[in-house]
Amino acid sequence: MARPLRIEFPGAVYHVTSRGNAQAAIFVDGVDRNTFLAVLRQTLRRFNVLCHAYCLMTNHFHLLLETPDANLSKAMRQLNSVYTQAFNRRHGRVGHVLQGRFKAIVVDRDAYLLELCRYVVLNPLRAGMVNDVGKYQWSSYRATAGLDKVPEFLSVDWILEQFGLDRKSARTEYRRFIEAGMDAEESPWDDLKGQCFLGDDAFLEKLFPLLKEKSALKEVPRAQRFVDRPSLESILANTANREERDSAIGKACLEFGYSQAQVGVATGLHYSTVSRVIRRDESRFKI
């Protein structure tokens, strides 16, 4: 199984999901959900992680987490493993509860965090589980909207500050903001880059040093390893002769991870020709 790219740095914000093994339910009833929230509370406290929003569905969960200490993997390993043990113990079963590794998308706070907070709590409505987001008990909506007491593990200050300094009016505006998204056709995921980044080019540029460190990890999916790479057209531009063309082909394939088929289409060369160029000049490039 390919290992997902993990970019961790102080203050990083993530949209995190985990799904049930073979799409099976990970929450059978309210007891399971309360157990998960208890484990989540303990985990966030232990690892100093902030939770801006959450939603527990039937076979998966959504979390919006912020890591002041750059420790998402440690925190999620604790959360998922402890909950799995509790679920199996209660239901008299063994084996995997969650499907593979958790998925984490690095989020540009300023551009997307608020929209994702809305996306997360609207999941039960989109899934047809309720017809009123305020009636769903297992998300952060009711607490953020002032309909329930805010649990100690939920950080609502940042969200409400986006709607004004007065807490009462901010909660009213928050509810209006959530309602306004119910019929939205656009999704924040339309702007997803490299399968695990939600932000503009300037945001990715800030992460470039961290991405560079990960680019040589072969077990990380290609689309994630090379999210910051230049376009194929720019690599192949200004090749006035065969030597420059071959050098650019090698750079595209060996340094930036483009496939030989992609290069073949871009250059008009047969796949076998591209392959020969790579084999001939491979020693000149650092893989």
Based on the model shown, name its key terms.
six-stranded mixed β-sheet, disordered C terminus, 13 helices, alpha+beta, 287 residues
Q: How would you describe this protein?
A:
This protein has a six-stranded mixed β-sheet, sandwiched between helices. With 287 residues, the chain is α+β, with helices and mostly antiparallel strands. The C terminus is likely disordered. The longest helix has 20 residues.
SSE series: EHEEHEHHHHHEEHHHHHH
Radius of gyration over C-alpha positions, nearest whole angstrom: 23 Å
Number of strands: 6
Task: Tell me about the largest β-sheet.
Answer: 6 strands, mixed
- Rounded to the nearest angstrom, the distance between the terminal CA atoms is 22 Å
Q: Identify low-pLDDT runs.
A: 216-220, 283-287
Kindly state the percentage of residues in helix: 40-55%
Write the layout of secondary structure elements.
Layout: E1 12-19, H1 30-47, E2 50-56, E3 60-67, H2 72-91, E4 103-107, H3 109-121, H4 123-126, H5 141-144, H6 157-161, H7 167-180, E5 192-193, E6 197-198, H8 201-214, H9 222-225, H10 232-236, H11 242-255, H12 260-267, H13 271-281
Parallel strand pairs: 4-6
Antiparallel strand pairs: 1-3, 1-4, 2-3, 5-6
Helix pairs in contact: 1-2, 11-13, 12-13
